[in-house]
């Protein structure tokens, strides 16, 4: 899944973009300073103050241009991707009815007399995502409440980074873990009839994968609630639990919602785990004990398979990609609106 | 009323000859807990010291706070008034690393006694903070929340209205009780916070510079409510504004730090008239006449 990947985590991305820009700027300033120092050295003895004015205007402009180029590059790249996606998708819908695309209950792109019902792949995506959220929402939120409200400063200082390390585990590792450890474990214990590829293990592991996203972003929101609000609660005779659940969580609610939406959009865009562990059987089902193919897994299958470019089958991946893009985009916009509201609260 | 009388006898203001330092009581056995009611209680503080980690912010402060009176705490910045105040309902210890030593009696109960529950103490000794801190809930819920968590089973609408009326904000908010408390002006928010505190029917109300962030008109409104409040509650107020202390309080405690780095001390405690007209100690006089601070 090429398209959704860099849109999955808008918050960290913005942050890192900002950081990169400011780092670049700092380096430029440093270079400039050294240059000025050097020239000062040449003139030492004659003047104490020697502000170099020659070429200053040009240098200032250059800095601005370099910075702007960095900023616009990423924007134009995104626009380019969206345009390619759009044209290919339009091309696809010249050959396949858009009504069929949204209503058909069969996905058989590679067969003779192919049928394209996006609902089939979407059901796989929704199913694994729902399982993932069912795991990650309670665990992530409770972990965030613990970190923000109960953990001592020292505990928080090492627990939070430790949790964030989970986000750094390559997703292919998670995928193999689901396939070679979790599924056999579930088969051997509670679900003997579980197929090797199934939505349940993929979803559960995907839930583990997005716990850090939900926990970390929610924790930021909870921690940002001013101490004065907590003290207001304590002063009325509230217990720690009442303050945490009835004052701090509601006050941070929009931040928590944003965290959950970010988690969902990561789960929707997640590829390797589902491609490895959920299977490649495109079927319309909401039963997590079955093998499903998600939108992302389908794109991987076609893109890495032997489908010839230019064929109708090949162009389906753009249509699926576009559908996926719209889904994650809508979620990211909602998350953005929530985060903005949350910033304005206090 | 016997205990009331002994307490009054021990009160400094009744005996102008006496120094601010109160003699330690001999007996320190924990008294049986007094049933929670809305009857105002006095507070007796003996040898209270407060710490932030290893830093001692207040040392050996003793005073008798009279029921149904307004007691003002004044003094230069950083002299421990607010810390002292926060020790009176065990809010001080909410800050990590903070602790207090000494004896604080609410009525007959030592609030720092072993087994004393800070949650119950804070219901009996309410607090209004320097910066208005309404919850991100509706105006109604801001007031009702405290009562609800304390298990209030009576008519909530009535309680909310009564509390808002006592805090002199009812007329301004009665038509928008469902709107967020954050949408009010600063002065309104502070009165909402006072209403919120009143709604849990405490016996004592502590106010930490409640008007310092407000404009004169809002300040006036808050001072007006104070007169009403002391009929039902014991009020302790920290203020930087000496005119305010002189206007609204019956007793005044002056906190002072003699040398940089020392902990704050209760320098003088007496009837407000005495503190502002004829204080015992020179530093107090210098401060109230505006020679420093």
**Percentage of residues in DSSP E strands of chain A:** under 5%
Q: Determine Rg of chain A (CA atoms, Å).
A: 26 Å
Helix content of chain B: 25-40%
Give the C-level CATH assignment of the largest domain in chain A: Mainly Alpha
Output the helix-strand order of chain A: HHHHHHHHHHHHH
SSE topology string of chain B? HEEEHEEHEHHHHEHEHEEHH
CATH superfamily of chain B: P-loop containing nucleotide triphosphate hydrolases
Number of contiguous helices of chain A: 13
Q: Kindly identify the CATH topology of chain B.
A: Rossmann fold
List the domain count of chain B as a whole number: 1
| Widest sheet, order of strands of chain B | 6-7-8-3-9-10
- Rg of chain B over CA atoms, rounded to whole Å, is 19 Å
What's the arrangement of secondary structure elements?
The complex is a heterodimer of chains A (346) and B (293).
Chain A: H1 10-42, H2 56-95, H3 98-103, H4 118-150, H5 153-165, H6 171-188, H7 199-223, H8 227-235, H9 240-251, H10 253-269, H11 272-277, H12 295-304, H13 312-345
Helix pairs in contact in A: 1-2, 2-13, 4-7, 4-10, 5-7, 6-7, 7-10, 8-9, 10-13, 12-13
Chain B: H1 2-10, E1 43-52, E2 55-65, E3 70-74, H2 81-87, E4 98-106, E5 109-110, H3 118-124, E6 125-128, H4 139-149, H5 156-166, H6 170-173, H7 186-199, E7 204-208, H8 216-232, E8 234-238, H9 242-248, E9 251-256, E10 265-271, H10 272-277, H11 282-288
Parallel strand pairs in B: 3-8, 3-9, 6-7, 7-8
Antiparallel strand pairs in B: 1-2, 1-4, 4-5, 9-10
Helix pairs in contact in B: 4-5, 4-7, 5-7, 7-8
Summarize the structure.
The complex is a heterodimer of chains A (346) and B (293). Chain A has 346 residues and is mostly helical. Helices cover 74% and strands 0% of the residues of chain A.
